[in-house]
Amino acid sequence: xxxxxxxxxxxxxxxxxxxxxxxxxxxxxxxxxxxxxxxxxxxxxxxxxxxxxxxxxxxxxxxxxxxxxxxxxxxxxxxxxxxxxxxxxxxxxxxxxxxxxxxxxxxxxxxxxxxxxxxxxxxxxxxxxxxxxxxxxxxxxxxxxxxxxxxxxxxxxxxxxxxxxxxxxxxxxxxxxxxxxxxxxxxxxxxxxxxxxxxxxxxxxxxxxxxxxxxxxxxxxxxxxxxxxxxxxxxxxxxxxxxxxxxxxxxxxxxxxxxxxxxxxxxxxxxxxxxxxxxxxxxxxxxxxxxxxxxxxxxxxxxxxxxxx
Length: 309
Hints:
By secondary structure, this protein is of the alpha/beta class. It contains eleven helices and 14 strands.
């Protein structure tokens, strides 16, 4: 298939794009490539890879690129509550309006797969897993914009994948994601202070996210017009439980819960992924396997741009 991916040079895209090319798809990536780095350099070996430098909000580019695609995957976004709070205009225009603009340009024969966030559940009831039927209650601009875009995709008959908190190594690495962050602190600092350690979230490896997209492409007709939670059913973990798993692989890692203070991110919920699992999807990466991968990966990274040594 001919697949258009906006924001394809990001954390998920830099894993997804080569996987789709290896499976014989033709992939066009619309991205600003603002970092000027080489996340997709290896993809240039495929003649079926077409990078386009531009902004996903540019309707002229959408007019030119969307009609040529069999499938559109809008990855371009400001990801995370802190970043959206810092630039709310960009958050609304990119996370919401750009996706709606792409949807409006689709013909009935075209498909759209949309990755949103399960943070739209906000604060769940204790001990009760959020399903796709659970009312959405986003508590940040990030969650609000992603839910609005999801509504447009579902009304068009597309598929929405509500991603758990993603972790794992990627060519365009992110250290701010919770598993990645805590493992980095364990490896480099051997310690972390936790606020509100009982808060729970669900997690998913970036390569299992890619597997979810591939599964949705293969099963599009039976899955269309539906939202699916995409996460590890074995990993509905509190921050303290996550740190305990990291400590099993990082000797000397100390984690303490602060007796005062609070986490500005108030998300606290567990998630059921049964609906997607019933379609035949299953994860390959456990949380333990992902932590081991991160530990290996962090031996290759330095995050000391402003350090003296």
